[in-house]
Write a structure and sequence with these properties.
Length: about 250
């Protein structure tokens, strides 16, 4: 099926859609050896040879997985009928069509959100069978006593059932934290709606701010809020292993 050249370039990962247009107008793109600068031009991906600066680019079926450091205020959906800000604005959907978020973070939760074009990987990572641990830091009202921490560790009765055992501990406060608050690190395996917020609320310590630092073996590792990056080969292998796909993923 013929497709617009700038779309082909974006899909092949040469640049974003806009960047691809810029490559074309700069005369850096050839189709079958001929420079093409006209933006409406079409190519047949199965027949034409497209090159950028002389280097052939191809459409690839290799799946793409990336992480975003989600800022607060963005809804985890790829489109929103209510026209709120969505995470789709923050990831390169032009370059990698078919990206979807693996799980969700609440609108006001910040931190590590994975995206992939690989449906099987996404399904496996979210399946309770694989017990992928997600680690959050929660700023909570009040300072939880040991009994509250123990209750969070053992399981909390929520309206949708008992929570599974979790790893929970107090971590040092940060400069600027409100007086009479505390910071908790919670590592859970489940992914129920607003789970951490409901767990903390249930022990009398509502969440003021929530941040996810780890998803299974992956961590943000200094990625700026609002920024994304592709996973490297070691991260992909570790994630595949966590999802029960073996180290070859
Ligand atoms: N738990 C929550 O309560 N909210 C999130 O965004 C993620 C986990």
């Amino acid at each position: 099926m013929p497709m617009r050249l700038q779309k082909f370039l974006a899909r092949a990962g040469a640049a974003s859609r806009r960047g691809s247009e810029a490559l074309m107008t700069a005369g850096r793109v050839t189709v079958n050896g001929v420079v093409v600068t006209e933006l409406g031009s079409k190519v047949d991906p199965s027949a034409d040879v497209v090159a950028v600066d002389g280097k052939v680019v191809r459409l690839t079926d290799v799946p793409v997985t990336l992480m975003l450091n989600k800022p607060a205020g963005y809804v985890t959906t790829m489109s929103d009928p209510h026209a709120r800000h969505t995470v789709a604005e923050l990831v390169p959907t032009d370059r990698f069509p078919g990206l979807f978020p693996i799980g969700r973070l609440d609108q006001d939760t910040t931190g590590l959100l994975l995206f992939s074009t690989d449906g099987e990987l996404g399904n496996r990572l979210l399946h309770p069978r694989h017990h992928v641990e997600k680690t959050y830091e929660a700023l909570v009202e009040g300072v939880p006593r040991e009994e509250a921490l123990e209750a969070l560790r053992c399981g909390i009765q929520l309206e949708d059932g008992m929570t599974a055992p979790a790893r929970v501990g107090l971590v040092p406060s940060c400069a600027g934290d409100p007086k009479g608050s505390a910071r908790l690190e919670l590592a859970i395996h489940e992914g129920r709606k607003r789970q951490v917020r409901r767990m903390c609320e249930a022990v009398g310590h509502p969440v003021v701010a929530l941040h996810r630092e780890w998803f299974g073996p992956l961590t943000l590792d200094g990625l700026e809020p609002g920024a994304w990056r592709l996973l490297d080969a070691a991260e992909l292998a570790a994630l595949g292993e966590a999802a029960g796909l073996g180290a070859s993923c």
